[in-house]
Amino acid sequence: MSSSTPARPLDVPRDGLPSVTNEDIDDAVARLASGRGSMAVDTERAMGLRYSNRAYLVQIRREGAGTFLIDPVGIEDQLEDLRGVMSCEWILHAADQDLPCLHELGLYPTKIFDTEIAALLLGYKRVSLQALCQEVLGWTLAKEHSNADWSQRPLPPPLLAYAALDVELLHELAEKLTDQLVEAGRLEWFEQECEEVRLHKPAPPAKQPWRRTSRQAGIRDRRALAMLRELWRARDGVAKRRDLAPGKVLPNQVLAELAARKPRSRSDVVNSPLFRSRQRKRDLDTWWNAIDIAWRLDERALPERKYTEDKDPYPPIKRWDRHDEAAAARWEVMRPKVLALAEELGIRQDLLIKPAIQKMVAWTGWTTQEELVSLLAKNGARPWQIKQVAQPVHAALQAAKVL
Predict the structure, then answer these.
(1) CA gap 139, 123 in Å, rounded
(2) Do 82 and 41 form a contact (C-beta atoms < 8 A)?
(3) Where is this region: Disordered (predicted)?
(4) Per-residue pLDDT tens for 71-105?
(5) Edge-to-edge strands of the sheet including 36-44?
């Protein structure tokens, strides 16, 4: 599937570097409305630097209109016309990364073409935008600015060129990948996967996000767990006020180490080797106040050592035979069959059918192929996945006499 065209570097947009649109949004909307067809869309955020996952730049390219770099900061209440003109098909790469922050701006597509999903279904080994542009189109895109601070203003020309290039080739890439999907007989698969991403509802935030850090640090003392919880909440408040990523205020590892030490006084915090830098000492009172809250809690108010709300509902697979021998037998046949099917199709097994669905089906069990089809559909498998998986998996379990 690789292109025979020699790779050529593309460092600046072929039509020149577009200016940034902010208060002049009406002109950009009018020009976009005069264009034709789908819109290539991308965003730039400041993940790991800022508190929110908001879009600090929205890149849009449309045939007949050109490329636009829209700075949405401060004009969020002026985007109504943009929302109307963008109610069409979008071409994106890794759409699940961009759609949430676009939805925050009230921007929704009627259909999407995700070039990453297309590449995965076609069995490409490297599926980054840079890799696909090089392999499919013969263009090399620089990616050295992917972790830049997109919240800075003004954005320097090298960042603007990088941002514009992210949508420069999406139309051409989508056209080539469409031809390949049709040739492979997988266009319907692709459309189902794209629609799943477009309509996907984000998972609710974890009710106790600090629990993951406690598990990683091995904290089991209930008072220390309370300290970690209060420190986490205090840090989140500081991060939100300063619009900083929480890890920039204080890393998770430091929070965990401080909680595990269970400081008895403010001086214990001040003298801790964890707070030698001036930046970390800035919020010493905040950290001590959080710890003091945890010390004052009644024993009955301390967090439990075990938290089961987000726990996997199934026992560890290696112990299935102790809980349900039939489920263990189904898994022993089903798992390698799914892996073999994915290998035959040349795609990843988690794209063929999510491991969570595989585990649920094996644990629940079924009697007829029709029951298996219903079980897969009920738990989120797409029609193309069910068509590829249900019959061969059912037949394999029948042959192994585990149904």
Answers:
(1) 20
(2) no
(3) 1-21
(4) 999 999 999 999 999 999 999 999 999 999 999 99
(5) 20-21, 66-70, 57-63, 36-44, 89-92, 111-114
In order of 92, 133, 338, the CA distances from 129 in angstroms are 10, 6, 28
Query: Look-up: residue for tokens 């998770």?
Result: 252
Structure tokens at 3: 């292109």
- Cβ atoms of 372 and 361 closer than 8 Å: yes
What lies within 8 Å, CB to CB, of 105 at 6+ separation is 55, 58, 72, 76, 79
* Lookup result for tokens 């980054």: 128
- 137 to each of 170, 299, 318, 394, how far by Cα in Å? 10, 64, 46, 41
Residue 154 preceded by cis peptide, ω within 30? yes
What is the rounded distance in angstroms from the CA atom of residue 253 to the CA atom of residue 80?
43
The model's pTM: 0.93
Quote the CA–CA distance of 252 and 210 in Å, as a whole number.
9
Q: What is the pLDDT of residues 52-73, one digit of tens each?
A: 999 999 999 999 999 999 999 9
The Cα 229–Cα 210 span in angstroms is: 6
The DSSP annotation for 37-100 comes to EEEEEEEE--TTTSSS---SEEEEEEETTEEEEE--TT-GGG-HHHHHHT-SEEEESSHHHHHH
Question: What are the structural domains of the chain?
Answer: 8-199 (3.30.420.10), 209-296 (1.10.150.80), 317-400 (1.10.150.80)
Q: What is the mean pLDDT of residues 155-181?
A: 97
Rg (CA), the chain: 26
